[in-house]
Inverse folding.
């Protein structure tokens, strides 16, 4: 009995050590044994089929970032075969040909900041850790497109082949192809809603304008609006090109950069000046009073896409008068019932050369408020207090026909439909004087429509 107890006493520490040793081991969902740390980088380095992406992580300087016992990352890990195909497609020998910066961008594009199991991916865009850098202090995350409609695809070509590998700092998915950071043209090709617009650009040989590395902003109408719209048009080639260019802007404009007001796009008027788009951010994200941004800030390597619910027709002057939040009273006056015989709306939409091109000196709302106080000092007057004939004369005094005057080519005097107006110019502004020598200053100049120019002014021109 004493012998058995003595023997048991010797064996017990060994059994306890063995229990502790094996209790520190665990299995992940795929039956892989996890010993100690099992971070993303640990997993990649322990599994030979991911050795190249593991080396890429190290070259990117992310070995520490993707290590640790906790975290919320999602990492897409291409296997060695996928990496070698990627290098071959680039025409390089291997990882040694990538710079540290290129390796970092590649790893970043395979990294999400939140954990996502395979079954939770839905069709749409995800922000990756990769950046579109504008300057030293401003950058935006590049987008990755997910399509889960029929099978789960990333950027229309990459599949998860080993899903939901548990790691200490998030979740890892083994994938069959490297995810390549896309240009804006690539994003349009892989999103079925945007493909029609891409194909129209391709048909008119416009892709070269947006495939360069220069930043572009593209407002893409969804196919269910674009396709029927084009089917009902009878565009000439030049008209169609201009229509498509009306959706393109030079530069990088995310919605946090855009402001209420006018921005030049790539379409041109007959005077070769670029046409404007009016943005109203007080009513959501509304363009030219007709098209809403329904998905914003889709970022590619050379620009940004905003998805529209309706096409952007090339604007005429009435488009801007109707859309501009500062011109509500002017628009109301032009469309007042007693002004309908003047047919202002159709005239300011026309581009047939009868009266076009126009120059419109458009009084802002406060200009009408001040004029009403001036004209009716002893009463609380409204627009309705101006009689028909006088209102027609006032409106005609802000319309010039058969000339589109930019600030640069404004003469010293211009003839409106009502009277002659005197002009004083500086490099960036002008002042008008009506027949009563009342002065009106420009508050926004050179708004270009397809049928003329609009300048916003702060004082009503009387006759």
């Amino acid at each position: 009995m004493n012998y058995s107890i003595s023997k048991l006493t010797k064996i017990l520490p060994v059994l306890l050590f063995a229990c502790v040793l094996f209790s520190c081991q665990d299995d992940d969902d795929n039956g892989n044994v996890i010993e100690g740390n099992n971070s993303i980088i640990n997993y990649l380095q322990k599994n030979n089929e991911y050795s190249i992406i593991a080396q890429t992580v190290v070259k990117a300087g992310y070995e520490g970032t993707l290590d640790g016992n906790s975290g919320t990352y999602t990492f897409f890990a291409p296997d060695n075969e996928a990496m070698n195909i990627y290098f071959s497609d680039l025409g390089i020998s291997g990882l040694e040909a990538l710079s540290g910066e290129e390796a970092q961008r590649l790893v970043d594009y395979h990294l999400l900041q939140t954990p996502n199991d395979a079954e939770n991916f839905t069709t749409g865009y995800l922000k990756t850790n990769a950046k579109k850098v504008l300057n030293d202090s401003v950058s935006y995350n590049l987008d990755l497109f997910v399509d889960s409609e029929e099978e789960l695809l990333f950027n229309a070509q990459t599949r998860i082949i080993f899903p939901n590998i548990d790691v200490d700092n998030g979740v890892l998915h083994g994938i069959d192809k490297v995810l390549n950071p896309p240009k804006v043209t690539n994003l349009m090709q892989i999103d079925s809603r945007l493909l029609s617009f891409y194909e129209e650009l391709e048909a008119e040989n416009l892709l070269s304008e947006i495939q360069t590395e220069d930043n572009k902003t593209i407002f893409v109408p969804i196919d269910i609006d674009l396709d029927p719209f084009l089917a009902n048009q009878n565009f000439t080639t030049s008209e169609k090109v201009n229509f498509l260019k009306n959706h393109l802007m030079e530069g990088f404009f995310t919605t946090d950069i855009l402001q209420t007001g006018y921005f030049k796009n790539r379409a041109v008027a007959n005077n070769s000046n670029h046409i404007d788009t009016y943005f109203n951010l007080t009513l959501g994200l509304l363009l030219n009073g007709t098209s809403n941004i329904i998905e914003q800030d889709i970022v590619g390597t050379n620009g940004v896409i905003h998805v529209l619910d309706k096409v952007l027709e090339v604007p005429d002057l009435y488009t801007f008068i109707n859309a501009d939040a500062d011109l509500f009273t002017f628009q109301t006056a032009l469309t007042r019932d007693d002004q309908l015989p003047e047919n202002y709306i159709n005239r300011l939409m026309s581009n047939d050369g009868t009266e076009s091109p126009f120059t419109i000196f458009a009084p802002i709302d406060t200009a009408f408020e001040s004029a009403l106080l001036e004209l009716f000092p002893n009463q609380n007057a409204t627009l309705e207090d101006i009689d028909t004939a006088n209102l027609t004369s006032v409106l005609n005094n802000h319309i010039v026909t058969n000339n589109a005057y930019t600030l640069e080519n404004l003469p010293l005097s211009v003839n409106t439909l009502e009277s002659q107006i005197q002009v004083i110019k500086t490099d960036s502004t002008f002042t008008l004087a009506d027949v009563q020598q009342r002065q009106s200053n420009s508050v926004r100049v050179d708004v270009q429509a397809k049928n003329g120019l609009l300048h916003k002014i702060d004082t009503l021109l009387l006759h």
